[in-house]
Amino acid sequence: MDRYAVFGHPVRHSQSPRIHAAFAAQTGQALSYEAIEAPLDGFEATLRAFIAAGGRGGNVTVPFKEQAFRLADRCDDLAAQAQAVNTLRVEPDGRLAGFNTDGIGLLRDLTQNLGVPLRGRRVLLLGAGGAAAGVIGPLLAAGVAELVIANRTAPRAQALAARFAGQGEIHTAELTAPGEGFDVVLNATAAGLGGQAPAVPVGVFGPRAVAYDLVYGPPAAPFLTLARQAGITACHDGLGMLVEQAAEAFWLWRGVRPATAPVIAALRGG
Ligand code: ATR
To answer: What are the angstrom distances between the C-alpha of 241 and each of 52, 106, 136, 202, 219?
Structure first.
């Protein structure tokens, strides 16, 4: 049986094993998928041991995505731009291929599952860490009218925007004054992990804005509560993005596209 795994720290609450087990059952693929918690200073050793034991590929989550990018022998364009890898595949010659499916996952969830158009829209992206970097390329490619990156530490946002300059209308702004009336506001900060919402004024939300947090479950609550208090009804966490990025990884490994809707519904059902 082909082995796959998600590597992270912590990783025990990861939904990825459940998602990939559902994909495998649905498509009749014989594979196993486990969650492996690598020590903070031991990602490479843990990954190499897994591959030596027959591992065919894996997903990579916080805090190892940048390390995975450096370890990959070759990367696709999205991973190279993001300088972060969330999907690894062991090639027939033993080389390690790196991909980033996070941005594709976000786009599929927004446009296909939630019916949120992006072309011509003004989008505000909060945060400038690895999570933000992973979604900028696909957002620009989707034809947004403007993508504004606002981060607590402004120089980080400026450095990130500079990396994507020339690919579309990308600007930076102060987190506390990022502009008003956006159509889509995406939270890619880690503030929710500490129970906080990023310190944005409620005017960032346009009258029919969509608020979306890239994480799911309780850490998404502070930002989505802020949006609801601003009168926004279209508030979404990142569970759909998680399932969609997993589906793209599954396709890269197995050449088969699983249906995502039943898996999202099952996870929402508890
Ligand atoms: P990730 O891979 O999850 O993006 P990261 O690279 O450590 O993790 O980035 C965390 C992001 O969350 C950063 O944009 C960070 O802002 P700074 O660059 O100023 O550190 C942001 N962040 C974390 N806690 C925050 C908070 N309480 N309010 C606003 N932004 C916060």
So the answer is: 31, 5, 14, 24, 15
